[in-house]
# Entry
Amino acid sequence: MNDASVTDAIKTDVLIVGAGPIGMFAVFELGLLEMKAHLIDILDKPGGQCAELYPEKPIYDIPAVPFITGQGLVDALMAQIKPFGATFHYGEMVETIERIGDPAFRVRTDRGKTFEAKVVVIAAGGGSFQPKKPPMPGIEAYEGRSVFYSVRRMEDFRDKRILIAGGGDSALDWTLNLAPLAKSLTLLHRRDAFRAAPDSVNKMRALVEDGQVDLLLGVVTALQGADGRLSGAVVKRNDGSEVTLACDTLLPFFGLTMKLGPVANWGIALHEGELIPVDTAAFETSEPGIFAVGDINWYPGKLKLILSGFHEVALMAQKAHRYVYPDKKLIFQYTTSSTSLQKKLGVA
Ligand SMILES: Cc1cc2nc3c(=O)[nH]c(=O)nc-3n(C[C@H](O)[C@H](O)[C@H](O)COP(=O)(O)OP(=O)(O)OC[C@H]3O[C@@H](n4cnc5c(N)ncnc54)[C@H](O)[C@@H]3O)c2cc1C
# Structure
């Protein structure tokens, strides 16, 4: 890695890996104790599993909230942490964590960003969400050049002949978003029924009526092209007939699975190969200054519940304070009665 990335490093008190509900609430607990945070997430939005896997499902066991949807919880957390002005970096995966002080860490992402933080909080949940790859022979040869499992920059798809495969929310959302930019856009799904929001399905059908999108029912059986550049896809239609579709971009959206990903390479001892053991006094790992909270950690009696993660970040913040402000004494305070905490929250 060159020196420029180190000079340009983004400096922060605390670097949070993962912007799921627990990483988000960590911002609140750290903020009350005057610690600034940056969060990095592979996804293009906050909320982790709640936003990605069950945005419309109800959650019934958040204390004092009898009912809230996954997305509702994420929105409420965003509002709650707003006073602390944390910076979110979406669409980036933390690849390495390197100790540079006692404690101090240099953290790098797959998109070339470098961070320097006194404390690292791993809130990486079940690990990284990875796309489910479709069983298309030879697809690997086109990945990253003509085949993409996510859209990071819409502009990259301007004037392309796009084939989107899938029938869920991602397939429909990107059909709607990319249709105005694309030279041509075909949506391919196995059947004429979609698992996406009804409003998106209606909008997609309107674009098909308008001739802006082609809807094809069937499956891709072969890809055509050379040197990683796609020129066409052979599609077997539901009626058994075959058609070769000219396209230079394929976006398969067949859902996501969770894999531990780079967390496994950060030199931290793992429990049963996939969870990070922590002490229950501060949820610190075997590496002083690196904490693990939420679904990613393990300790006797651990429950993978949102309420457990909320408790963990409160205790984590107390210990993190010692690293960030070694000379300051921490005084325990309630938000109901402390004017200083209320000032930080912008309510006094
Ligand atoms: C269908 C379903 C229903 C559920 N219902 C409930 C319920 O009713 N009540 C309840 O308490 N819990 C429920 N859960 C569990 C709950 O969602 C999890 O406990 C919670 O999401 C854990 O939060 P987290 O922040 O630890 O992890 P996650 O929500 O998994 O977020 C982790 C984030 O870290 C990111 N990440 C991972 N690795 C990296 C990396 N290397 N670089 C950058 N980012 C990274 C991921 O992209 C992800 O966004 C449910 C889970 C599912 C799947």
Observations:
- The first strand starts at residue 10 and ends at 17.
- Residues 179 and 212 are 7 Å apart (CA to CA).
- The chain has eight helices and 19 strands.
- The first helix runs from residue 3 to 7.
